[in-house]
Amino acid sequence: MGILTLAKIVEIKAKMTWTQKNKATAHHLGLLKAHLGGGGGGPGEGFDVAKTGDAHTGFAGFPSVGKLTLLSNLAGVYSEVAACEFTTLTTAPGVIRHKGAKIQLLDLPGIIKGAKNGKGRGQVIAVALTCNLILIVLDVLKPLGRKKINENELEGFGIRLNSKPSNTGFKKKDKGGINLIATCLQSELDAETVKSILAKYKIHNADVTLRSDATADDLIDVVEGNRVYIPCIYELDIIYKVPQCVPISAHRRWNFDDLLEKIWDYLKLMRIHTKPKGQLPDYTSPVVLPCSRTTVEDFCMKIHKNLIKEFQYALVWGLSVKHSPQKAGKDHTLEDEDVIQIAKK
């Protein structure tokens, strides 16, 4: 699609702002969004951080909002903290242990309006794309409108907060034109709009299936295929009724327990305890798995990739089985705090 200059991006966004959103203008707005590439071109170039632990949480927010103080008090990580803007110019990591899991904390450099377009230290925020959870830190003494600015900037990096991919099917083909199938009523997309948006990506032959009421953004996200969907928590004073909000005081270390519990809930991790043959289960160092990968095979791969090659069967105790112990194969799905013993060939 070519590279857009900052001036061109501003011009297109101004047109989108001026255009009243309704059924009649949906086609025009869809084309403008396609010009922008859906509000962000993905990660681009940025600073990398060595990933460690079982999950990764990024602390995002405006400069000097207290992210580093919060991380330091949570993880005991020392770094320069100053009462001025842009203290953190690179991504500072820390690690905490909670419920047996090692959770890496990343203090992302302060977000400023326009960071996604290269202003300030925008490239570094791309590290957020590798996170399993984003925690946006907001200052209760600042306008609540900053919450939306943070969200917009992260959206500009291809991050979709607290949302799931749309139920939109897309498959390119060699010929046959654009074939659109909608299984339900569409309020924004029609055949002409879909065809025009795809033309901006030089796609003239494809099958598109809309299984829910989709938007131009939904279609663009599927076409570009570089979006990440990350859960998000907000650290904010309780006087605001903000969903996914946890009120804390970073300086006074107030309400950290609730924050850690919320982080745990949103990360959706599972603990699997090991039991060597003839010994008691080890409840001190669980093997931690994401809820999307919880089979016996996933457990084996987390320990060592060669373990699955030697795997014969597993004995499982816990909620995932009817009898304790119960013999299980590699495709068996485990539950949180199951106990497992692997029998090798």
From TrEMBL:
InterPro entries, sorted: Beta-grasp_dom_sf, DRG, G_OBG, GTP-bd, GTP-binding_2, GTP1-OBG_CS, P-loop_NTPase, Small_GTP-bd
CDD domains: DRG, TGS_DRG1
UniProt signal peptide: none
Keywords per UniProt: GTP-binding, Nucleotide-binding
One Gene Ontology molecular-function label: GTP binding
Claim: Plastid is one of the keywords in the record: no
Domain OBG-type G: 55-268
Pfam families per UniProt: MMR_HSR1 (PF01926), MMR_HSR1_Xtn (PF16897), TGS (PF02824)
Domain of life: Eukaryota
TGS domain location: 268-344
Record-linked NCBIfam families: small_GTP
Name the record gives this protein: Developmentally-regulated GTP-binding protein 1
